[in-house]
């Protein structure tokens, strides 16, 4: 068998290798590694020629537990044995859960080591008989490439030299002779279509395969593709230095790839492209630029190729309208779902049309929620730490998980609607019964010539006392609330029916159209006809 040893103590590695060679002449120590990262790199590179890994459980950097877990996922054919000292049984137990087939206690006893290796040898013989004729998985080379390139782009100094050598030897490139560009391909959910993890994996496999076939195998451009660590496939391009026309060819090739992907995938596809770099050490910067370009699809939109420079040209400030926050906050705090939907639609449309940078946009949305949250606490709707209060870190994290405008708008609407619902529930719980009865009576009889005395008689109170309590609990005077109810009903009829104004006037409790129009304009700011036309205009957008 071919065996890899991983231990940070050189004497232990040498002693273990000596013992194994003495026990079985056919066993070969193919690698002696001082840490988990080195062992993992070797196994990924030479995985087909490795049978057994014997590793210490405690090593600096990537320890034995992490090493075992990654090999179980990436190279499941490699049998792993863990070594540990006395008093480290918890590590042993965890290593067995991660996939180790056995363990050895230090100091090692030759007979125990011999029994473990012989047991593995017999298991491999039985597996070979059961799987005779089956071929080795072709995925090992791809996994090795993914491991190296991700290490290079995420600035892992332990693996970077090997990754650079992989690019130089495998693709014939060198610093100074080429400029490097990176691109990320992202496929997003729709508002009505959520992804499962299996869907994401399938999309990523498809993107990688199509990129290899459409770009690199056709020699349109030089480069390679791999699965990044950020839920998108990464493309790396090699453009000869001094050949600027090749950069435009690269962008044309990416547009062709986008067209191919979009024709097969019924979800938004976006490609983000970095600027160029000439050193391997600049690879992490290229990844950051790809991430920035893809974040810009939040305001630029999906379905296109976005370069890093375009993402940086987005506006860094927004001229907030004086009442932009106020109208949305007020509608939320009144628990008025209908008005909230309208005012939030105007607010979000204004944000989108401004073409501002995603970070600025998220900051504006955060400030909106913080304002609502502080008012909810001030009015006693929620207490600090309860659902509905402003947790800046958690809220920002949730908003960042909305890469597209439709997803962000859906999230904002959902959250504000939930907060508005809290306001309504709070108001219902704290109002005295006589106020609730008065409000219900108003909603049932607003079409008639309602008076304070009539409602007071219904709930059994003096009119002056009801007037005082109504103002205290409802926030408006009795007569203003009646007008508010009538206006909301009138607006609903104007929006949802074609009834003429004089007919609506009668249905909401006004004797003459002139009086109705006068009150409507003073409260809403326009005539009933103007309101109907403006609302229909908004719905067409």
Task: Characterize the structure shown.
It is built from 24 helices and ten strands. The protein is of the alpha/beta class and 541 residues long. The strands form two sheets. It has a five-stranded parallel sheet with strand order 2-1-3-4-5, with helices on both faces. A five-stranded mixed sheet has the order 7-8-6-9-10, with helices on both faces. Helix 15 packs parallel to helix 17. Residues 132-139 have low confidence and may be disordered. The radius of gyration is 34 Å and the shape is elongated.
**Percent range of helical residues:** 55-70%
List the uncertain runs. Answer: 132-139
Count of helical segments?
Answer: 24
Quick one: biggest sheet? Answer: 5 strands, parallel
Overall radius of gyration? 34 Å
Strand order of the largest sheet: 2-1-3-4-5
Distance between the termini: 70 Å
Given the C-alpha coordinates, what overall shape results? elongated
Strand content: 5-15%
Domain Response regulatory: 2-121
Protein name: Response regulator
Modified residues (4-aspartylphosphate): 56
Domain HTH araC/xylS-type: 436-534
How are the secondary structure elements laid out?
Blueprint: E1 2-6, H1 10-23, E2 28-33, H2 36-45, E3 52-56, H3 64-74, E4 79-84, H4 89-98, E5 102-105, H5 110-130, H6 139-153, H7 160-171, E6 178-187, H8 197-216, E7 223-227, E8 233-240, H9 245-264, E9 269-273, H10 283-295, H11 297-300, E10 305-307, H12 308-312, H13 324-334, H14 337-354, H15 358-378, H16 392-400, H17 405-430, H18 433-445, H19 452-459, H20 463-474, H21 478-496, H22 501-507, H23 513-524, H24 528-540
Parallel strand pairs: 1-2, 1-3, 3-4, 4-5, 9-10
Antiparallel strand pairs: 6-8, 6-9, 7-8
Helix pairs in contact: 2-3, 3-4, 6-7, 8-9, 13-14, 13-15, 13-17, 14-17, 15-17, 18-19, 21-24
Pfam family, one: HTH_18
InterPro entries: CheY-like_superfamily (IPR011006), Homeodomain-like_sf (IPR009057), HTH_AraC (IPR018060), Sig_transdc_resp-reg_receiver (IPR001789)
Modified residues (4-aspartylphosphate): 56
């Amino acid at each position: 068998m071919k065996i890899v040893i991983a231990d940070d103590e050189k004497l232990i590695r040498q002693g273990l290798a000596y013992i194994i060679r003495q026990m079985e002449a056919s066993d070969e120590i193919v690698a002696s590694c001082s840490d988990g990262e080195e062992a993992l790199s070797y196994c990924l590179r030479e995985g087909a020629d490795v049978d057994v890994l014997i590793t210490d459980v405690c090593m600096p950097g990537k320890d034995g537990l992490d090493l075992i877990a990654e090999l179980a996922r990436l190279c499941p054919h490699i049998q792993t044995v863990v070594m540990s000292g006395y008093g480290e049984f918890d590590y042993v137990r965890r290593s067995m859960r991660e996939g180790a087939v056995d363990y050895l206690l230090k100091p090692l006893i030759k007979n125990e080591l011999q029994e473990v290796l012989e047991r593995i040898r017999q298991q491999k013989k039985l597996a070979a008989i059961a799987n005779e004729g089956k071929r080795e998985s072709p995925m090992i080379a791809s996994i090795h490439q993914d491991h190296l390139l991700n290490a290079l782009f995420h600035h892992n100094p332990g693996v970077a030299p090997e990754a650079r050598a992989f690019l130089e030897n495998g693709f014939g490139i060198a610093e100074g002779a080429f400029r490097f560009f990176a691109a990320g391909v992202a496929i997003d959910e729709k508002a009505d279509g959520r992804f499962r993890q299996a869907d994401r994996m399938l999309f990523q496999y498809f993107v990688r395969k199509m990129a290899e076939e459409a770009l690199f195998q056709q020699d349109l451009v030089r480069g390679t593709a791999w699965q990044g660590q950020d839920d998108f496939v990464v493309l790396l391009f090699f453009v000869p230095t001094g050949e600027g026309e090749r950069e435009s060819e690269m962008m044309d090739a990416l547009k062709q790839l986008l067209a191919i992907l979009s024709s097969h995938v019924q979800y938004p596809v976006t490609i983000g492209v970095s600027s160029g770099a000439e050193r391997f050490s600049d690879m992490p910067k290229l990844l950051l630029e790809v991430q920035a370009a893809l974040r810009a699809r939040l305001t630029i939109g999906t379905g296109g190729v976005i370069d890093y420079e375009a993402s940086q040209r987005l506006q860094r400030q927004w001229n907030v309208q004086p009442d932009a926050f106020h109208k949305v906050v007020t509608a939320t705090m009144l628990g008025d779902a209908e008005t909230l939907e309208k005012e939030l639609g105007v607010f979000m449309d204004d944000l989108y049309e401004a073409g501002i940078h995603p970070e600025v946009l998220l900051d504006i949305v955060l400030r909106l929620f913080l304002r609502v949250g502080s008012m909810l606490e001030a009015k006693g709707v929620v207490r600090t730490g309860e659902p509905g209060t402003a947790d800046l870190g958690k809220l920002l994290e949730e908003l960042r998980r909305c890469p597209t405008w439709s997803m962000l708008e859906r999230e904002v609407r959902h959250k504000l609607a939930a907060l508005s619902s809290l306001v309504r529930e709070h108001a219902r719980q704290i109002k005295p019964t006589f106020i609730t009865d008065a409000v219900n009576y108003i909603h049932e009889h607003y079409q008639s010539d309602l008076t304070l005395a009539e409602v007071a008689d219904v709930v059994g109170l003096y009119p002056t006392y009801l007037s005082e309590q109504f103002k205290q609990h409802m926030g408006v005077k009795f007569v203003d609330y009646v007008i508010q109810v009538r206006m909301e009903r009138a607006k609903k009829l104007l929006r949802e029916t074609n009834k003429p104004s004089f007919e609506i006037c009668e249905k909401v409790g006004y004797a003459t159209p002139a009086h109705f129009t006068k009150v409507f304009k003073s409260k809403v700011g326009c005539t009933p006809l103007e309101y109907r036309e403006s609302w229909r205009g908004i719905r067409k957008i």
